[in-house]
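Per your request, structure below.
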């Protein structure tokens, strides 16, 4: 492609790779592979209705700790929010993530919750940036990125598509 009118810039190649890495992560997450990416953040409860979460792509679990006793919270549907407002409760039982906010029910003002989550992927941008790829998925990522790059040209990609499907 170097001598063609459709030359790919470094930024275009990086964009293709970033898109392919995100697609690969989504494939794993959709197929119960989110544990490869999970991080945790502790949120101190203050009695607020919601708590801001940053860099959270998907929440995988929430647990509450008070006086060294940990309770696993379960998600609730927005329509059921009125069912879980208990006056005088000492421990929450439900959570909901809406946008970038975490809602805990019943609302309490003591203890903390640990939010287990999959963070957003931070795009590669510099030459030295790396990403941990495992179990041979690097071939899938490269093939997918090449297919994205070849969309810029009228190149037949059927052989690459077949190879990608075999990965």
């Amino acid at each position: 492609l170097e001598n063609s009118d459709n030359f790919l810039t470094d930024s275009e190649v990086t964009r293709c790779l970033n898109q392919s890495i995100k697609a690969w992560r989504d494939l794993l997450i959709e197929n119960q592979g989110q544990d490869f990416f999970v991080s945790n953040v502790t949120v101190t409860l203050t009695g607020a209705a919601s708590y801001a979460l940053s860099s959270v792509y998907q929440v995988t679990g929430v647990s509450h700790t008070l006086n060294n006793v940990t309770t696993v919270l379960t998600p609730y549907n927005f329509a059921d929010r009125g069912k879980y407002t208990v006056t005088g409760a000492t421990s929450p039982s439900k959570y909901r993530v809406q946008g970038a906010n975490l809602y805990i029910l019943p609302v309490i003002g003591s203890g903390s919750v640990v939010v287990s989550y999959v963070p957003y992927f931070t795009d590669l941008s510099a030459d030295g940036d790396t990403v941990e790829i495992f179990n041979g998925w690097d071939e899938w990522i490269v093939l997918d990125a090449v297919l994205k790059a070849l969309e810029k040209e009228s190149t037949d990609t059927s052989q690459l598509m077949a190879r990608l499907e075999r990965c």
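The first helix runs from residue 10 to 30.

Regards,
D.
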